[in-house]
Design brief:
The chain is mainly β. The protein has one domain. It is 7% helix and 38% strand. Strands 1-4-7-10 form a 4-stranded parallel β-sheet, with no helix packed on it. A 4-stranded parallel β-sheet has the order 2-5-8-11, with no helix packed on it. The protein has a 4-stranded parallel β-sheet with strand order 3-6-9-12, with helices on one face. It is globular and about 45 Å long.
Length: 136
């Protein structure tokens, strides 16, 4: 039996006050679901200024019987994946709690140059050297 669950960065439950997920460079997520994954009952997070390169989904916001996320803001991120899941999709959003904001995230088209702000996040995250040249 295999469990197809996973994420590069994931959270379960409430953040303390207003928790921040920012300035991360995430590449080549292998398992299903979001590279940025707010799981069951995640709340009070501000997820911004991250770069997500490749993988099945750039963002997943949990919904349904496990407990939906709420009071989460996801903005100003850069990604090259057109797929998001859970409450991050227009299809599921009406079934999700209020106080979810997903805005101003930049989809970088295949072969397009990454914006300077995304490159600055990558550099600040410490992604340097020849082994990373193929990522961006």
């Amino acid at each position: 039996m295999s469990i197809l669950d996973g994420c590069s960065l994931g959270w379960v439950g409430c953040g303390v006050g207003s928790s921040e997920v920012a300035h991360n460079f995430i590449a080549n997520q292998q398992m299903l679901y979001g590279s940025l994954y707010h799981d069951a009952r995640s709340a009070f997070f501000h997820t911004h200024d991250n770069v997500v390169v490749d993988g099945p989904m750039w963002l997943y916001l949990q919904w349904g019987s496990l407990g939906a996320v709420h009071d989460v803001i996801v903005e100003d991120n850069f990604h090259n994946q057109s797929v998001a899941g859970g409450c991050a999709t227009p299809k599921e959003a009406p079934t999700c709690p209020v106080n979810l904001t997903v805005r101003n995230n930049t989809l970088v088209a295949p072969g397009a140059a990454w914006p300077p702000a995304a490159l600055a996040i990558e550099q600040a995250a410490g992604v340097v050297g020849a082994q990373y040249e193929s990522i961006l």
